[in-house]
Design a protein that fits this description.
Number of helices: 1
Structural class: mainly beta
Distance between the termini: 32 Å
Strand content: over 45%
Order of helices and strands: EEEEEEEEEEEEEEEEEEEEEEHEEE
Shape: globular
Largest sheet: 16 strands, antiparallel, barrel
Length: 449
């Protein structure tokens, strides 16, 4: 080989090595469909808190329920199709450099519509760079990645997230850290068995109920950042410790948040800022109950103002009519089993629950929301003021490999899910409830597996 010539090789499927750099292609093409009853006019991403109500405790005169409560919804989609490119350079002075970019088509553009072209736009899922020194146990990652709260299968580096293997693009209720955002993560490993990580992550405040005019400045529309972008004064800070053992992976973590709003005091026409400390902690684990046959995984988060770090996004705070806000207590939990019945067949089952609390008395009286939930169970199009306080899900499913060989991998999947919503009571004590059953089907082709 002549001096200066770059050697190009193909070390594995979907991989190309140029010099000391390996480029890895990944992703899949998906054709999928979903049936939901009642209808929510969603795609493969479930709207966990948007179910139409049909009744509840101390219900008023029984009606047929909300507009879509007696409807079904059948929808097909290819928007889950995913593409990724990974770059890794190793063997350079005990340093590993990495980069990873991943996207799908779940974005919504100004011309996106199912009426004619189905022209849905690409969406950025992940884009991060890594600098690693394995010989001294230090790893640094920056960019858009899953939150450090998200459980991992081993270590604490991105790319090893341990989530339910479902078709639903919103994951499952109770999923911890079900969020991807810009962050800086520093990981220290001790003999590649014990790990500690600190992550500084982009903050965003979410609320429930009505945001009163006195606090509207806290959530502004921005042509660059998007709508309802909160004004934040500090990033979220996540710390996590983990251990890899011969019988599973175990994690403990905590999150600190600095929730902020800007309140307009009408009497004096003088603005007033509020910053309140919030946070919580949790744990996660994944372990082989029967090695190579049955795996158990689970996670839990409890805290104040931490609901954003979950799948249902119930809300971090509620605003009072004067513009002040109250951090809400949040509980998020999930447990699941994944069985490897045969080399081609995987079966799974998960149960998840999320709730918020912390309001005194009846919710509608204490916060800037409507005083009646009666309109939630009629079909006349009246505004429903009910606020979801708890979401539960039971889901089961399976994946079967139709083909796995030199041309890649083709898998077909089935998922059944049952959702339930509970709401806060209104001034009359009425709390409407909602349930939904859904069946999802998928076929995915992984050309590089």
């Amino acid at each position: 080989m002549k001096p200066g010539t770059t050697l190009v090789t193909s070390p594995g499927k979907g991989q190309m090595t140029i010099g000391s750099t390996t480029i890895t292609l990944g992703g899949f093409v998906e054709g999928a469909g979903v049936y939901r009853s009642p209808a929510v006019q969603s795609d493969l991403s479930s709207a966990f808190t948007k179910l139409p109500f049909v009744g509840g405790s101390t219900s008023p005169t029984i009606q047929n329920g909300a507009l879509n409560a007696r409807e079904q919804d059948v929808r097909a989609s290819a928007r889950g199709t995913r593409m990724s490119v990974g770059v890794s350079s190793e063997g350079i002075e005990d340093t590993i450099l990495r980069a990873f970019v991943e996207g799908d088509f779940v974005g919504t553009g100004t011309t996106s519509s199912q009426v004619s072209s189905n022209s849905y736009v690409p969406r950025l899922r992940q884009a991060w760079v890594g600098y690693e020194r394995p010989n001294v146990g230090w790893h640094v990652f920056a960019g858009q990645q899953f939150s450090l709260i998200t459980p991992l299968s081993s270590g604490l580096s991105p790319g090893k997230e341990k989530v339910a293997p479902v078709i639903d693009l919103s994951q499952t209720v109770g999923t911890a850290g079900n969020i991807r955002q810009a962050s800086l993560r520093i990981v220290k490993d001790f003999d590649n068995r014990f790990f500690f990580a600190l992550s500084v992550e982009n903050a965003q405040l979410t609320s429930i109920g009505t945001v009163p005019a006195t606090a509207a400045a806290s959530f502004t529309a921005n042509s660059v950042l998007g709508t309802s972008t909160s004004s934040d004064v500090a990033p979220d800070i996540v710390a996590k410790a983990a251990s890899d053992t011969s019988f599973g992976h175990y994690e403990l973590f905590g999150v600190a948040r600095f929730l902020h709003d800007r309140m307009n005091v009408a009497a004096t026409s003088v603005g007033q800022g509020h910053t309140k400390f919030a946070g919580g902690g949790g744990a996660a684990a994944s372990l082989p109950i029967i090695p190579k046959l049955l795996d158990l995984q689970g996670s839990v988060i409890y805290g104040n103002g931490t609901a954003r770090y979950s799948a249902a996004y119930l809300g971090d705070v509620a605003f009072r009519a004067n513009g002040d806000f109250v951090p809400l207590k949040s509980t998020v939990a999930q447990i699941g089993l994944v069985g490897h019945a045969t080399p081609r067949l995987d079966i799974y089952g998960f149960a998840g629950y999320e709730s918020i609390s912390g309001a005194t008395g009846t919710f509608a009286n204490d916060f800037s929301t409507g005083t009646s939930n009666a309109a939630c169970v009629v079909t006349n199009g009246a505004t429903c003021n009910a606020i979801v306080k708890a979401v539960g899900e039971l889901t089961v499913g399976a994946w079967y490999s139709l083909y796995q060989g030199e041309a890649g991998l083709v898998r077909t999947g089935f998922q059944y899910m049952h959702l339930s919503n509970e709401t806060f009571k209104d001034a009359a004590g009425f709390a409407p409830k909602a349930k939904q059953d859904a069946v999802l089907l998928s076929m995915r082709y992984f050309p590089f597996n």
